[in-house]
User: Which sequence fits this backbone?
């Protein structure tokens, strides 16, 4: 640990112990040639929670999510979902749905075909395509090529893809990007309803005001390291806002 | 694996890439075959081997080139548009994803080979007949052109997937394939006598050999088929390893 860095903020009854965790990062480390993007990161998430994964730009949020989802290999430590490495999950899209980038589509393919091809790969029934299109309210645009979609529509299509397998865990990287106020409101209600059915959401964000309205616990990282984790109401007690906590722990960068 | 194959077929069907490449290839085949069929001095076209190599073989050459591009696009397109992320989230066993791409690109590549060679056979024969040149090709020569063209297309597509998986970046992959087939192989089979022996074993020359072109210089069709298949398996395996071992950003 580098000198001068504050110790992680201790909050009792923070995130869950590893035994029943949906998501577990244990001493997770990812180094690139001259950069340690994720540095000895340990946290775990309990079922039925909406967790905000917060940190300044470049803190290592996206890298951590990619390690959890098996797109990148850790340099050291473990990244587990439902107690296993992502790639060892049986039928992963039925357990985990993820939205990483708003533009992960072929612009010349229709939204419906994008979902159909994923459903084929995941061996899901084709009716799931119509189900998730209805869920994200994108039925009318589904036949159009994605290049005609607004950023908000692309986010909805990405969310539809994440929901295809009716997963128990949703992992979303900055999902509010590009959504208008009505879209943000819709997303917030959607995530709350998702968690109230006993499912789990891990959502990264650097938009604190929005995150504070959506999540019930937070994991805050800075320069790849954990700086605070715990229930939002406990972190923000005594009149402190999430922004106060965040700026205090991350040295004032947003 | 069946699920991956069906997914990959839908990927190819649901964009205009494959159809666009097929159309572009057929247009170029027509242009090249008619240009040579009508334009080359009749004295150079008095043997079956010359008629096949100079006129009809253009179909095989272009089909192999476009099939290799199709194979490379099938994977570099995923990296370019970011669809590699949802693809691998749904199917984290990356070797299977690459294997499905090799299979489906190979199938479409065979179709490219068949279509390109069939068009070249028809237009080449019509052009030579129209000039009053005796057709020295027999049924077996046409059959070898079509079958060899299909095989060359399929195997070139598989090599293309391997190149694409290793390069990931679309522009270098496509430029590399074009530079190799359009320029480097020409050098290897050109005027420098000592490298001519090496050039016969290059992938493009093997594709030509499979379809019976230039039998005096190139290896036999059967040997070419075996060797190109070895390249295709090696290329696909290298692509699978490169995809499995490296992170996806």
Assistant:
């Amino acid at each position: 640990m580098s000198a001068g860095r504050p110790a992680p903020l201790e909050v009792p009854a923070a995130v869950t112990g590893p035994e029943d965790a949906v998501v577990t990062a244990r001493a997770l480390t990812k180094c690139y040639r001259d950069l340690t993007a994720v540095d000895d990161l340990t946290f775990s998430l309990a079922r039925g929670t909406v967790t905000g994964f917060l940190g300044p730009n470049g803190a290592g949020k996206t890298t951590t999510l990619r390690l959890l989802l098996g797109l990148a290999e850790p340099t050291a430590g473990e990244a587990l979902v439902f107690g296993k490495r992502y790639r060892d999950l049986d039928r992963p899209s039925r357990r985990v749905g993820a939205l990483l980038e708003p533009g992960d589509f072929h612009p010349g393919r229709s939204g419906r075909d994008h979902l159909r091809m994923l459903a084929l790969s995941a061996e899901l029934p084709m009716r799931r395509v119509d189900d998730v299109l209805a869920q994200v309210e994108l039925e009318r645009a589904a036949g159009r090529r994605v290049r005609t979609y607004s950023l908000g529509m692309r986010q909805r299509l990405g969310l539809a893809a994440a929901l295809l397998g009716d997963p128990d865990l949703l992992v979303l990287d900055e999902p509010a990007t590009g959504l208008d106020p009505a879209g943000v409101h819709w997303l917030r209600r959607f995530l709350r309803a998702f968690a109230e059915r006993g499912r789990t959401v891990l959502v990264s964000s650097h938009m604190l005001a929005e995150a504070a309205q959506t999540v019930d616990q937070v994991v805050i990282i800075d320069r790849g390291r954990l700086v605070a984790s715990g229930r939002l109401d406990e972190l923000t007690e005594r009149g402190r806002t999430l922004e106060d906590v965040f700026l205090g722990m991350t040295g004032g960068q947003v | 694996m069946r699920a991956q194959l069906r997914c990959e077929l839908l990927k190819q069907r649901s964009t205009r890439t494959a159809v666009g490449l097929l159309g572009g290839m057929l247009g170029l085949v027509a242009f090249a075959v008619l240009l040579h069929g009508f334009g080359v001095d009749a004295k150079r076209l008095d043997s079956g081997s010359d008629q096949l190599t100079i006129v009809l073989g253009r179909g095989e050459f272009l089909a192999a080139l476009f099939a290799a591009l199709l194979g490379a696009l099938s994977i570099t397109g995923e990296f370019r548009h970011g669809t590699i992320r949802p693809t691998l989230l749904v199917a984290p066993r990356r070797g299977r994803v690459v294997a499905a791409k090799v299979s489906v690109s190979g199938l479409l590549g065979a179709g490219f080979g068949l279509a390109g060679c069939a068009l070249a056979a028809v237009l080449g024969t019509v052009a030579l007949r129209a000039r009053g040149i005796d057709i020295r090709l027999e049924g077996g020569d046409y059959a070898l052109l079509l079958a060899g063209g299909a095989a060359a297309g399929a195997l070139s597509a598989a090599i293309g997937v391997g190149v694409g998986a290793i390069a990931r970046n679309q522009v270098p992959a496509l430029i590399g394939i074009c530079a190799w087939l359009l320029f480097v192989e020409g050098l290897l089979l050109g005027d420098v006598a000592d490298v001519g022996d090496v050039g016969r074993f290059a992938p493009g020359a093997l594709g030509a050999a499979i379809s019976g072109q230039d039998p005096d210089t190139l290896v036999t069709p059967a040997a070419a088929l075996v060797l190109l298949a070895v390249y295709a398996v090696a290329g696909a395996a290298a692509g699978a390893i490169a995809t499995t071992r490296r992170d996806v950003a």
Remarks:
- Strands of chain A lie at 23-32, 35-45, 50-54, 76-81, 96-99, 169-173, 200-205, 217-222, 225-231.
- Residues 55 and 221 of chain A are 5 Å apart (CA to CA).
- The interface with chain B takes residues 66, 69-73, 86-87, 89, 92-93, 96, 98, 100-101, 103-110, 113-114, 116-118, 120-123, 161 of chain A (CB under 8 Å).
- Confidence is low (pLDDT under 50) at residues 10-14 of chain A.
